Amino acid sequence: MEGGYPGVGMAQHEVSVRGVPEWIGPxxxxxxxxxxxxxxxxxxxxxxxxxxxxxxxxxxxxxGLVLDGVFVSVDVRPALSRARVREARLVDARRRRVTTPxxxxxxxxxxxxxxxxxxxxxxxLRIGEQARGRPVLDLGCGAGGNSIGFAxxxxxxxxxxxxxxxxxxxxxxxxxxGVEDKICFEHGDATAWLSKAQGQLVFVDxxxxxxxRSSPQRLDDLPLLLRLHGERGPPGELWAKVPASFxxxxxxxxxxxxxxxxxxxxxxxxxxxxxRWGAP
Length: 280
Hints:
four-stranded antiparallel β-sheet, Rossmann fold, alpha/beta, seven-stranded mixed β-sheet, Alpha-Beta Plaits
């Protein structure tokens, strides 16, 4: 039986992956060729035969990954050599340098936080198109990535940000993309706008910190989302961008979508999850 990558020889290892939720699935994350699924208690296990190079690549890419509140585990039998593991980790580190760009037009302004938290422009536009031109209230707009994506897709947007410097950057970036006339920028606390959210699609990208990607996150860890969500779930239509590590079992039932990158270095990497409540 040939391995998953052309030219790497006969398959030598049985690989088992646990902790990948069904709503994410193996198609993008694992590159679904030849993976079989079986249920083990409440866990779905994905199994496949892989050559050493591909088995090491899967193990390196998923190392330390947390999805939906659960640590992903990879079991390779027989075990890989240390040299193969080191090589795969080096390849993975190099590959991750080529990621989907944040803003893809020259002249945009992004601070240190935005360099890792910004929704890439191509992805923000894709999300914006799903709003189908409806008005959007973007609470905590940061450098404006999501607001610009909604506006480019035809929505009018009210973008709220409490950090004055970031709000100025968002206004500047909207001008770069030519959508400043479709976005009303407001300086203030997002929670003060909750009473004005009736009848609008509310989008929130709550601050979650760089370390959130590597540890399970719950609703209590995202205070702004907690306020919007309420005890019984949000009263209207709410979309939330949360880390892939966020445990969706801590919120009311919702639509869940894993958002992957588009470049070679992150096309099999879950950049974040998009949760939707009350979608029509």
